Amino acid sequence: MGAMSCVPESSGIAAGETGLVIRPFTADDNARLTAIWYAASRLSHPFLPDDLLLRQRREISEKYLPETETWVAVRNGDPVGFIGLIDQFIGGLFVSPDVQSLGIGGRLLDHAFALKSKLALEVYAANTRAVAFYRRHGFCGVRRRETDDNGLPHPLILMQKPCPAGQRRFGELQNPTR
User: Fold this and answer.
1) How far is CA 20 from the centre of its chain?
2) Which residues contact 105 (CB under 8 A, 6 or more apart)?
3) N or C: which end of the chain has fewer CB within 10 A?
């Protein structure tokens, strides 16, 4: 699923935070991760209609979580976030609102990058916290489209890491020739 990113700005945590483990998804995680997705989506995507989020919540539970390569952040035994990968594409990165800004999203990104060495994602342009988060983690915008996967007028930014040669951020070149 494109444009399913909910990641706040991170204040950072010690790299070896006790109690945080990243492990593969199991069917037992489904209800908790679906709840995290819904709570985080409502917080970060207030511009999306609730009926759409309710439909997507069902898709997340029945299709997305079981069918993608999903990694779960577990803190002190409880799932607190996840990242879903479709090859080198991040279908979604979500952290429970009650533990956002602790570096969990960054740890999930680091884990995914270590596995894939190249990542891409789409993020809603209106989700400025997520855009800033991804930029801080080395992603740059490479393309923008004006409608989302539902045909709604919510622009999406395609971001990737590593950035293409000579590009830092969407629309900016490091060494412009003109």
Assistant:
1) 18
2) 7, 8, 10, 81, 93, 95, 133
3) C
Confidence of residue 4 (pLDDT cuts 50, 70, 90): very low
- Amino acid identity, position 173: L
Domain assignment present for 148: no
Phi, psi dihedrals of residue 42, rounded to the nearest 5°: -65, -35
- Three-class secondary structure of residue 7 per DSSP: coil
**Token representation of residue 144:** 């923008």
Q: What is the pTM of this model?
A: 0.83
pLDDT tens per residue, range 27-54: 999 999 999 999 999 999 989 999 999 9
Q: Is the pLDDT of residue 174 over 90?
A: no
Residue pointed to by tokens 């991040």: 90
DSSP type of residue 167: B
Domain hosting residue 23, numbered range? 5-117
The band of 160, judged by pLDDT with boundaries at 50, 70 and 90, is very high
- Give the Cα-Cα-Cα angle 78, 84, 86 (nearest 5 degrees): 160
